[in-house]
């Protein structure tokens, strides 16, 4: 049974909130994806900006559909304009990586990236709450983790506002990471 739980994330491919539409990637998202991957501020705690040419090559190789093909992976779009404001994923954290709250690993892991112009408006909070509520309705209760560089105060603030509590720190990608967790069913409405 535990193995079965581990293979799942939420099944929805589209979710709406007051200001946002969480959906799968479309051709119109190309520039948005390039900006997310190449903006030095957005990438400050994610290993730095990637060269634009590499990003374009990757998008051409996988196509728009390939960018969010995994279950639980979404574009965050403005619900009025359909313009990409960021991306969010609720996927499994591989047991091979450091940073876990259960022995077998493979916890649900929440991650989020917004365009610089979209920071400071509560949009990441709104997107995360929408996805976590939908997941809580569909999946058994289980821990969800957020892993963020300890130096990344904005991301730590968001995790805390969502109700995640700090449990440990560890090293990955040459930086100290903070692991926080919350029970999925805490997000049940
Ligand atoms: C991490 C990240 C998503 C946080 O974005 P954010 O906009 O600060 O997060 P929130 O959605 O929680 O918004 C909170 C801010 O919006 C403000 N806000 C404005 N209107 C709001 C509303 N209606 N509801 C809630 N907050 C609102 C809050 O006061 C807060 O402002 P503050 O930053 O001045 O304290 C963003 O900085 C980012 O994309 N960083 C780069 C990618 C990255 O490193 N991701 C982490 C990897 S896991």
TrEMBL record:
GO terms for molecular function: acyltransferase activity, transferring groups other than amino-acyl groups. Keywords: Transferase. The keyword Transferase applies. SUPFAM superfamilies: Acyl-CoA N-acyltransferases (Nat) (SSF55729). Residues 19-165 form the N-acetyltransferase domain. This is RimJ/RimL family protein N-acetyltransferase.
């Amino acid at each position: 049974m535990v193995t079965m739980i581990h293979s799942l994330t939420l099944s929805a491919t589209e979710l709406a909130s007051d200001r946002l539409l969480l959906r799968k990637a479309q051709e119109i998202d190309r520039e948005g994806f390039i900006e997310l991957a190449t903006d030095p501020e957005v990438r400050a705690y994610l290993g730095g900006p990637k060269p634009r040419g590499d990003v374009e090559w990757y998008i051409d190789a996988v196509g728009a559909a390939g960018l969010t093909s995994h279950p639980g992976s979404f574009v965050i779009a403005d619900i009025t304009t359909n313009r990409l404001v960021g991306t969010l994923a609720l996927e499994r954290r591989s047991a091979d990586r450091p940073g876990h709250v259960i022995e077998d690993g493979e916890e649900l892991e929440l991650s989020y990236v917004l365009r610089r112009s979209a920071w400071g408006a509560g949009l990441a909070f709104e997107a995360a709450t929408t996805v976590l509520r939908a997941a809580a309705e569909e999946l058994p209760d289980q821990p969800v983790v957020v892993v963020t560089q300890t130096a990344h105060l904005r991301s730590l603030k968001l995790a805390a506002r969502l109700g995640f509590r700090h449990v440990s720190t560890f090293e990955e990608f040459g930086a100290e990471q903070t692991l926080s967790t919350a029970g999925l069913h805490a997000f049940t409405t």
